[in-house]
Design goal:
The complex is a heterodimer of chains A (984) and B (174).
Chain A (H helix, E strand, L loop, with lengths): L17 H5 L16 E7 L5 E7 L1 H5 L3 E6 H5 L22 E2 L5 E7 L2 H8 L3 E6 L6 H4 L15 E9 L2 H7 L2 E9 L11 E7 L4 E6 L6 H9 L7 E4 L15 H14 L3 E4 L2 H7 L5 E10 L5 E11 L10 H4 L13 E9 L14 H19 L3 H8 L8 E2 L5 E2 L4 H12 L1 H13 L3 E15 L10 H7 L7 E7 L5 E5 L8 H13 L6 E4 L20 H28 L6 E4 L2 E4 L6 E3 H10 L13 E6 L16 E15 L6 E11 L6 H21 L30 E4 L17 H18 L10 H9 L21 E10 L3 H8 L2 H7 L3 E8 L2 E10 L2 E15 L3 E10 L2 E14 L2 E13 L7 H23 L16 E3 L2
Parallel strand pairs in A: 1-12, 10-11, 14-15, 20-21, 27-28
Antiparallel strand pairs in A: 1-5, 2-4, 2-6, 3-5, 7-15, 8-13, 9-10, 9-12, 13-14, 16-17, 18-26, 19-20, 19-25, 22-23, 23-24, 26-27, 29-35, 30-31, 31-32, 31-36, 32-33, 33-34, 34-35
Helix pairs in contact in A: 7-8, 11-12, 11-20, 16-17, 19-20
Chain B lengths: L9 E7 L2 E7 L5 H8 L18 E4 L2 E4 L12 E3 L18 H8 L9 H14 L5 H8 L10 H15 L6
Parallel strand pairs in B: 1-5
Antiparallel strand pairs in B: 1-2, 3-4, 3-5
Helix pairs in contact in B: 2-5, 4-5
Classes of the chains: A alpha+beta (984), B alpha+beta (174).
């Protein structure tokens, strides 16, 4: 034999993708060539969270050599329609703003130019006049009667509200001895793949057809949304995806509005247009997971059994409801009782709009937002009843003998043995030893806690779940929408080689390897013999609106469909071989690259020869075999039915189980949480490739850890986005991610062809709350929200910080979200106060002193106007500064007030300068306060504060040099200088 | 030092993976753009353009550098190495091979989407040359200069440690 294992499925073989990727030969979107004449786009984005657009002045940008066009929302609106949403509401979402912006980062204009450098130059020349409106950022505040309204037609900011009752929760709450509640505020975060969005589009006016290449991931229901927005039938939007994608985690669903934007731009300029998103754009305006405020109550009996749940969920979808939202809120609808047998459930779901980036798919999709309050609540039940948290979980778990188990809210859990998984996890994960370690640490006075989380991980979404947002009457009117579909095509070429094509659009998971394993097993070949193509072309390949890479559907659905397609083809090949060997098809075995008779092993044919027969000798096909060249299978699981009249919905086909526990120690002084041990037990059904499954678990854990401890898409109270760089939005690095212990059991799914379930998202659901439970246990606190930053934990560990000693000014912000930068400094200059005074009032001298100055104009004796170019971190732009002098006491003291405005943001400030004779020279002392907004504010306090100090320091250093030399200014911020680029 | 004119393109000559190359660039052209779009060396990726993610890491005169924070004109006369230069030449049968480090990555599933991988390989390649007997902590620190969103890093650390051993001759993976 050839040394092949009994089955290739289940082996951790090396990935077919890797050699190419490791040698730099990957084909990601920005690695592919473009047609000659392709133009490059750059997008001007709103610096305001909420403002009316009064005017957009584009003439200067248009006049820049190399610029082909500057397009505004009005230009785009002439050839596009709004993006349709899942909820019928007067919310008009477009690919580019027309008369109003509703979040920082919303596209306002797009420049199309000969290259990206020129396009970005032109962005600086566009002047937008905004009339700012009050912004609302907090979802609860957005519901207040006096809150600023985002969409006037909606009347308020509530976009959807539904109430559900399953069983008799009121009776259960009335009878239960305990009602235990928790409120959580789940923050915003995102998947942040290392490759950003990319779109290359062109338009053929003669055929009225778009050809678009984008690193889109699906779901392909969005293809319909994009085609409608571009006002063409679906067959005139050819959407292709590159062979490789640099990660997605759900996020690349959100490239869809940019497909509309760039495709429309290509149509308007009559040339192909390419756009690659930059990191600042991606963090500010790609896709965020929803932030959610949840109050969850449980009716609990004396033993800790949960009799009923009462959910109140307030979902924040940002500034627009963009398809498929509000799906994040409904994806888990069948799973609202988690891993527990709870029969009575009440749910109120509200969707609110705020001045933040619209939300969309992010790994875990709705799971983290549900399991955070649910598993925090289970921990609270244990604490409040004085019971062991493991006992609380065990008593409530769904019993193994009840599978397939129908949950109160309608999900049909396919298989599982949760209690067994728990037992094995505790035994093999060393739970007892961990408890002893905690007790020992506590005896020494250390802050050590244990967290546990039990999670059911849904996969293969039912497209119908989103219609649960409609009432039963509305659903009747709209007609049924339900199910899931996966497809695969297996073909044979004239040399008998096998090719597989799927509409799965992998984003790095290794689907091509697993498909090669699955198909190799069916045909008795080696994975290396199978060629798998996963880059999709909607004009030529088999797909459906359920296609794509989402809801962990590859292993359960796509790989299964490929198996079915190959089996159909194999059955035909067996007929052909049987007729040549004069035996029965059932007698033939496909193994080792051969087709052999079981009864008479001497009867044998090479696989290739039979596989090629249909090409070379189609006339010799046995009757009714037809062709044996290509087989496409569309697979639809019958279990995914539409929501019932009572709003029960089987929101997903498969349900894996996860039991995590961990030990965390918190440093009393720094507040840093150290993960001492983390155990994660998974039951994802049949495992197709153990190495990849563990890879998904480790990757999901790292993202869950990021969400728990480091990452937040943070906004100021005014809607300024303040996490726009990787120095502000912190992804965990190798030094922060601990090793974890991964355990498995397998209860195969009876609903999928291979018995596999999804596994990619689970730890994004379980890890944040497991860590939070450990921190709550360590600190003995009831209420704790993410992210668990050291500052937050230090405050909880030791109480509020003591006030600074007398004489030291507090540097704390006046209020949370305050974007005011404050500072003070002094320097000594070898010139008299009179000399310096004269210099400070001379526009020509000032022009030479102000960092990045392009010139200073004196408007009056006390008013100056300057144009400056400043670069801070990744944000570089041109600004106009208007400065007024007041309270002049020549030559001793002056107060400066001013405003700075530019395409990248704005600021208002005030400063005071005093000149005091000091020997032969002058001591200059200054204080300042600057409030910043817009894109510039998104780079975060740390950089901005340091950069402001450096810029002001540079001004006075230049003044000192000009006036005759001085000591150099402090180099305290030298490490930040690399971030600072002044002038051109 | 040559004074560069921002309105003009300038000819830059350097060695890329052992081959002399020449390219005309504006003074502000980033090295990433020159390599990728000018010379077609697309293996070096751009993840953040502000020096944090490390995807664009290459070697300039043997030292790791962020290509996104380097201007193309800065590598005049330099020896530049990118991920395309890591693997040994194809063997006599024309069979393409991977370097010891690359092969260890493949064995350990130390990559998923592969977008960040080139930068990590370049950092580790430079580090292992100078530090043949690294500690796990030191390797973790080096990888800590890169962002990977797929793997959770553990397999990358394992691959690097195994490659270090193999490069020292302590272990040969079969």
């Amino acid at each position: 034999m050839d040394g092949s294992p009994a089955t290739w499925v289940g082996q951790s073989i090396e990935r077919v993708e890797d050699a190419t990727l490791l040698s730099g030969r990957g084909r990601y979107i920005d690695d592919l060539g473009t047609r000659p004449g392709t133009l490059h786009a750059a997008i001007l984005r709103s610096s305001h969270a909420h403002a009316a657009i009064e005017a957009i002045e584009v003439a200067a940008a248009r006049a820049l050599p190399g610029v082909a066009a500057v397009l505004t929302g009005t230009d785009l609106a002439a050839i596009t329609t709004p993006l349709v949403a899942s909820v019928r509401a007067p919310i008009e979402a477009r690919a580019m703003a027309t008369d109003r912006v509703r979040y920082v980062g919303e596209p306002v204009a797009v420049v199309v130019a000969a290259d990206r450098y020129i396009a970005e130059d032109a962005l600086d020349l566009i002047e937008v006049t905004y009339r700012p409106r009050l912004a609302v950022v907090d979802p609860e505040a957005a519901l207040a009667p006096a809150a600023p309204v985002l969409h006037d037609g909606l009347g308020g900011n509530l976009a959807s509200e539904r109430a559900f009752t399953y069983g008799d929760p009121d009776a259960a709450f009335a009878q239960a001895p305990h009602r235990i509640s928790i409120t959580s505020r789940y923050p915003r975060n995102t998947g942040s793949p290392i490759e950003t969005y990319g779109v290359i589009a062109e338009y053929d006016p003669h055929e009225d057809a778009f050809d678009v290449l984008a690193n889109f991931q699906g779901p392909f229901s969005i293809h319909a949304v994009v085609a409608r927005a571009l006002a063409v039938p679906g067959n005139r939007l050819r959407l292709r995806m590159p062979p490789d994608s640099g990660g997605s985690f759900g996020v690349k669903q959100g490239v869809a509005p940019y497909v509309v934007l760039i495709a429309a731009a290509a149509r308007l300029v009559g040339r192909p247009v390419k756009w690659i998103e930059d990191r600042l754009e991606h963090l500010a305006a790609s896709v965020a997971a929803t932030n959610r405020v949840t109050t969850l109550s449980a009716a609990v009996d004396r033993d800790g059994r949960v009799l009923a749940l009462d959910w109140d969920q307030l979902e924040d979808c940002g500034a627009y409801l963009r398809a498929p939202e509000p799906a994040t809120l409904y994806r888990m609808h069948g799973n609202m009782t988690g891993a527990y047998a709870i029969r009575h459930v009440k749910i109120r779901n509200r969707v609110v709009l705020t001045n933040k980036t619209p939300t969309g798919l992010v790994r875990g999709f709705g799971g983290p937002q549900v399991y955070y309050p649910l598993e925090r609540l289970m921990q609270r039940i244990a604490v409040e009843l004085g019971l062991d948290p493991i006992d609380i979980i065990r008593r409530n778990l769904i019993p193994a003998e009840t599978f397939p188990y129908r949950t109160a809210t309608g999900a049909l859990y396919d298989s599982g043995d949760y209690a067994h998984a728990l037992d094995i996890a505790l035994r093999d994960g060393g739970y007892q030893a961990l408890c002893e370690k905690r007790d020992h640490a506590r005896a020494e006075g250390r802050l050590y806690g244990i967290g546990i989380a039990a999670v059911v991980e849904p996969s293969v979404s039912n497209m119908g779940y989103i219609t649960t947002v409609l009432t039963a009457a509305e659903r009747r009117k709209a007609g049924p929408k339900n199910g899931a579909q996966a497809n695969a095509t297996v073909s044979l070429d004239p040399l008998g080689a096998v090719t597989v094509q799927v509409a799965s659009v992998p984003q790095g998971q290794g689907h091509r390897t697993v498909l090669a394993q699955v198909i190799a097993d069916v045909f008795g070949l080696r994975p290396i013999d199978i060629r798998v193509i996963t880059d999709l072309d909607t004009a030529k390949d088999a797909w459906s609106i359920a296609s794509g890479n989402y809801s962990s559907r590859f292993a359960p659905a796509v790989a299964g469909a490929a198996k079915l397609a190959a089996e159909k083809l194999r059955a035909r090949l067996a007929r052909i071989a049987a007729s040549q060997l004069n035996t029965l098809a059932d007698d033939l075995v496909f193994a080792g690259g051969k087709i052999t008779s079981r009864c008479n092993p001497g009867l044998v044919l090479p696989f290739n020869r039979i596989a090629a027969t249909s090409h070379w000798a189609p006339g010799t096909m046995p009757d009714d075999v037809g062709q044996a060249i290509r087989e496409t299978v569309f697979w639809t699981p019958p279990e995914l039915t539409a929501p019932t009249e009572a709003d029960e919905v089987n929101s997903s086909l498969c349900h894996g189980f996860i039991l995590d526990f961990c030990g965390v120690e918190i440093d009393r002084i720094t507040g840093k949480a150290r993960i001492d041990k983390y155990v994660t037990m998974h039951d994802c059904g049949t495992i197709l490739h153990p190495g990849m499954v563990d890879g998904q678990i480790r990757g999901g854990f790292a993202q869950g850890l990021g969400a728990a401890v480091f990452e937040e898409l943070a906004y100021g109270d005014d809607g300024a986005f303040i996490a726009g760089s990787f120095a502000d939005y912190l992804l965990p690095t190798a030094t922060e991610v601990p090793r974890i212990d991964i355990l498995h059991i397998a209860t195969p799914s009876p609903f999928t062809p291979l018995g596999a379930k999804g596994v990619g998202e689970g730890n994004c659901m379980s890890t944040p709350v497991c860590l939070a439970n450990a921190v709550a246990d360590a600190l003995g606190v009831a209420a704790i929200d993410l992210p668990l930053t050291p500052a937050k934990l230090a405050a909880l560990a030791r109480g509020d910080e003591a006030p600074p000693p007398a004489g030291i000014a507090s540097t704390k912000a006046a209020k949370p979200g305050d974007r005011t930068l404050r500072g003070a400094g002094e320097t000594t200059v070898a010139a008299s106060p009179e000399t310096l005074w004269a210099m400070l009032l001379d526009p020509d001298i000032l022009a030479g002193l102000i960092p990045g100055s392009h010139g200073v104009r004196k408007l009056s004796d006390t008013r100056f106007q300057a144009t400056v170019t400043l670069g801070i971190g990744p944000v570089k732009g041109k600004y106009r500064a208007d400065v007024s002098l007041a309270d002049l006491t020549p030559p001793r003291e002056a107060t400066l007030t001013g405003a700075i405005t530019g395409g990248l943001g704005s600021g208002d400030g005030r400063g005071c300068v005093t000149l005091t004779p000091d020997g032969a020279g002058t001591a200059i002392a200054y204080t300042y306060e600057v409030a910043v907004g817009g894109k510039i504010a998104s780079i975060g306090d740390r950089l901005l504060d340091g950069a402001t100090k450096i810029i002001i320091g540079q001004f006075f250093a230049a003044l000192a040099r000009k006036a005759g030399g001085s000591k150099p200014t402090s180099s305290r911020f030298a490490r930040l200088r690399a971030w600072l680029r002044i002038g051109r | 030092m040559t004074l560069l004119n921002q309105k003009q393109k300038h000819r830059v000559s350097f060695t890329l993976n052992g081959v002399p190359v020449e390219i005309e660039v504006a003074p502000r052209t980033l090295l990433t753009d020159a390599l990728r779009h000018g010379l077609g060396a697309t293996g070096t990726h751009v993840g953040c353009e502000h020096g944090v993610c490390g995807a664009c890491t290459i070697q300039i005169n043997g030292a790791p550098a962020r290509a996104c924070l380097t201007l193309a004109v800065q590598v005049e006369g330099c020896v530049v190495r990118t991920v395309e230069g890591l693997a040994p030449a194809p063997d006599q049968d024309g069979q393409y091979r991977l370097s010891i480090l690359q092969a260890a990555f493949r064995r350990h599933h130390a990559l998923q989407c592969g977008f960040c991988t080139a930068g990590i390989l370049m950092s580790l390649d430079a580090f292992l040359r100078e530090t043949p007997l690294p500690s796990v902590e030191a390797i973790t620190e080096v990888i800590g200069g890169h962002l990977c969103r797929c793997t959770g890093y553990a397999p990358i650390i394992d691959a690097a440690m195994e490659a270090a051993a193999e490069l020292r001759g302590d272990a040969k993976h079969v």
